[in-house]
Protein: LacI family DNA-binding transcriptional regulator
Organism: Rhodanobacter geophilus
Amino acid sequence: MKGKATSFDIAHLAGVSQSTVSRALRGSPLVSEETRRRIQSAADTLNYKVDKNASNLRRQHTGTLALLLFEDPTADDSHINPFFLSMLGSITRASAQQGYDLLISFQQFSRDWHADFAGCQKADGLILLGYGDYQSHRDKLEKLVAQGTRFVRWGAVLPGQPGVSIGCDNFEGGRTATAHLIGQGCRRVAFLGDATPHYPEFHERYRGYADALRAAGLEVDEALQADAETTERAGYEAAELLLERGVSFDAVFAASDLIAIGALRALAERGLAVPGDVALAGFDDIPMASFVNPALTTVRQDTGKAGEVLVEQLLRLIRGDGAESAMLPAELKVRRSSLRR
Amino acid sequence: MKGKATSFDIAHLAGVSQSTVSRALRGSPLVSEETRRRIQSAADTLNYKVDKNASNLRRQHTGTLALLLFEDPTADDSHINPFFLSMLGSITRASAQQGYDLLISFQQFSRDWHADFAGCQKADGLILLGYGDYQSHRDKLEKLVAQGTRFVRWGAVLPGQPGVSIGCDNFEGGRTATAHLIGQGCRRVAFLGDATPHYPEFHERYRGYADALRAAGLEVDEALQADAETTERAGYEAAELLLERGVSFDAVFAASDLIAIGALRALAERGLAVPGDVALAGFDDIPMASFVNPALTTVRQDTGKAGEVLVEQLLRLIRGDGAESAMLPAELKVRRSSLRR
DNA sequence: CTGAAAGCGCTTACAG
DNA sequence: CTGAAAGCGCTTACAG
């Protein structure tokens, strides 16, 4: 095969000007049916495809969305967090449905990522996904806003945040899960996960947890909380820490399923039965959650819906329609790990 | 902020020509250190980024790789096959490491995908990932080759295939898993999964299965095979079919973990104990495999390695170095689901 | 409805 | 080591 066909080649073949080829192929109503047909068939025989780079350069637009996936550098890098993987799938689908390509890029929190994508014309807009220290994140978000970069982020939805955020109702999720554990007769409910404003999603879950405890007339005991990022290992270690502290507890609410699954292993190794000795609940409803033994009670985040909303709001931003932050419902999924009666 | 800065803006600011700016920023050795510094600092203050579209158009290159993910349209579309998700993660990482962006695109087998990416300058090369009917796939692969499109595919590695294929040693994986089941004392080993050349990966696993049976002096009984695509539901249904046939079996080798997990559920519902009544093994080692109860014996495909090799070979193709098909080792992971003694 | 022409923002021979 | 100029392949006012 010789070099790629251009619009000039097909103009020549169809006996029209190159401008008309361009118009015809972009579906302009200005072109007559007959001309359009001739051009189309010429394009087909030459196997012509519009050059995206040229088209994008001219139109100042890319037709692609970029997904920036942040991973905590301390996470064991063998596997991506399954929750994000699930989001990735749903975002990919949603973009495709809207006719956009999706560019995926892994980023580390520390890096100067905010500059990399803003204005280099790789994408019309950005989707930010990932946990991590929000305080350090925030500056970059503000720069993004200042630069006029279109972006939406997945995360906690709180007042005063820069840009558009989509997230689930972490507070309500935490509250419901904890209330459920209390409803099972538990009185000493531990919380596994970071509980500071640095990690707003976990913090909201923690606030919901504390709220449920107080509503039941129970004390919020700091000795019952242990930090953990979202990995199985961190969950395992946090549970061990709790055990070593010697505080008594009859339930664990983990800020994520991965943490819960790690805790489950730690508890089993100490001979503690779930749910018999300790009732357990997680957060996310990753695919694994229903397969562990016992099946894990958790708060489901609807990743399918999340992807749709993220893409939809980003496209609104791109079109200049104005987008809004939104909070998606979190749904308690009761499984065996928390059923004590 | 006003419109984006161009190379002319920074040329003006640095007091040089636009060509020099371009050279300096691309790291040409022709530019003096001092000039380069001045240009760099001008670029920094104007927050200048090279426009990818323009650069790519001029250089006739994109700096991005496209991943075409094929999903069987009959699969329940709530979740992507976890094995592919894992591959996706590893491919993303590997591309990033090589300085390439990754464009992800879901495709249906039926669609005319082969034309969509070839020559439209969206990507320098293609990675094809997904199961499905190979026969219908094949024509398109041949067209891709004819068009000179650079691509590598994940799949069975067999003689006479168009293009470069990377896959794991499916035959050996199937053989080892089956031999292990036989070693556990099983004599009637069922195979769950399509076993025709239309699905070459499964077919290879089936051939390995049959080989192990014969090597042990056991008969290959067609009544012990049931078709299934890679979903939990299909695995469940295939196991049910087997049960309804009334044939006796004391082990199941499933062509994928998802199939195995579905079978596990079907067996449990009939009151059959795994591994007590039926020993079970799968293929892939998806994250879930170690979390089901009992933990699933399986053949591990090293997705991390797979992504690296795929990207590496594709880049060789792009550079014109010539790439070769390669078969990666498959490793048996023995867990509780197959241990009868 | 169609064509001639400008221009999107770069890269890279060519000339000095 | 640097600059002036051509050109990558389109899209889109402008003129007819």
